[in-house]
Amino acid sequence: MHLIENDAALAALVQQWLDEPLIAIDTESNSLFAYYERVCLIQLSTRQQDYLIDPLALNDLSPLGQVTAAPHIELVFHAAEYDIACLKRDFGFVFANLFDTMMAARVLGYREYGLGKLLNHFFDVEQDKRYQRADWGQRPLSAAQQRYAQQDTHFLPRLRDILHSELTAQSALPEAQELFDKTLQTPPAEHSFDPDGYWFLNKTRQFSLRQKAMLRELYLWREQIARQRNIPRFRVLADEKLVALVQVNPKSVNEMVQKRLLTRHSAQRYGLPVLRALASGRTAALPTPPQPPPRLMKPPSAALIGSRTGASSALPNGAWKAISSSRAMCCGNWPSARPARPKSWPRSATWAPGAANATAWNFCSFLIGNRGRPKPTGHPKTVTLQGQ
To answer: How far apart are CA 202 and CA 46, in angstroms?
Structure first.
């Protein structure tokens, strides 16, 4: 493993990487510790070596952009959308050729497609989760942090090979490629703030307009403090704390502490400003509800699709029910979970892409999840990371 902390070393390595056909990439950011999130570490692996690039120590990362923009280099990510959005925002990188192992696993029907689960499934590797919530903006990085970061890309080239072979065997590679190509168009991440976001906080549906006004004042105050201190909003006050403060409507700092609305430490720091925000909301102009978002396109009916393909009678009711409820899929977003094989689906039939359910696969490919997969043979069971 190589830690890159100066511009000359990066520029020299980029010339080597431009000759590589495949490179795995991941990033670590400080979103849990800063309002203005930034990429704090870039992990990169070829088939031969692992690298950690420290953006906080470098003055110029533009040479790395030559690698991400090279169409002949396949970039392997796991859950690429967030990483690509952050790299575009912070460094203006362009991306040309992508393979996303998480998307590939989902297309193939794996029920558990997190990187840790896949590494354990194929390589018997247990991920150390201690550093998932670490502050990656702090320096120096410990040796344990570096090993954790290294593992995120070390196995990706081999994992990509396994999943690519399975996609090819199941004739599902074109479906996956569509998703990869769409992910390449992910826009840069933004430091955005919705001033009407308080309307959509949990447990506020029954709030009166006066309570909404009080919540608005707290919501806007919290945003100001988070920006001033450069900390995430939840480290000022969590959403549920804002809602509880409006519900109870305390009249003193002591009441906040006694009713456990704020910890003693938070009350000492924010108690008086919170009281002022609540008081302002009691007399401020009442808010106007924001315009509702446009309605999402409904999925086509089973009858409509079946009339064009003759496949509707071959699909179980459970499949069509899942299609009907998958509004997010119609808008190009993957659902958070893949439904299991419908109970009405015959045990003897294969619940996978095939002639009978080809239309459902093309329309909503998350419906192809298999009940389970045997661990492939021929894959390494124990791997020692380089540099250990």
So the answer is: 45
Closest CA to 153 of 7, 32, 53: 53
- Please compute the mean of the pLDDT values over residues 362-388 and round it to a whole number: 45
Q: In a 10 Å sphere around its CB, with 0-12 CB exposed, 13-18 middle and 19+ buried, how is residue 287 labelled?
A: middle
For residues 335 and 328, the answer to whether their CB atoms sit within 8 Å is yes
- Residue 198: is it exposed, middle or buried by C-beta count within 10 angstroms (0-12/13-18/19+)? buried
b or e along 270-279 (b: 16 or more beta carbons within 10 Å of the residue's beta carbon)? Answer: bbeebbebbe
DSSP state letters, 295-343? PPPPPPPHHHHHHHHS-GGGS-HHHHHHHHT-HHHHTT---SSPPPPPT
Pairing mode, if any, of strands 2-4 and 22-29? Answer: unpaired
Using omega within 30 degrees of 0 as the cis cutoff, is the peptide bond preceding 140 cis? yes
Q: Which CATH class is domain 197-283?
A: mainly alpha
- Name the CATH superfamily housing domain 2-184: Ribonuclease H-like superfamily/Ribonuclease H (3.30.420.10)
Q: Is the dihedral of CA 268, 269, 271, 276 positive or negative?
A: positive
Q: Is the pTM of this model over 0.85?
A: no
- Higher-scoring residue by pLDDT: 2, 302: 2
Strand partners, 28: 41
Say whether pLDDT at 48 is over 90. yes
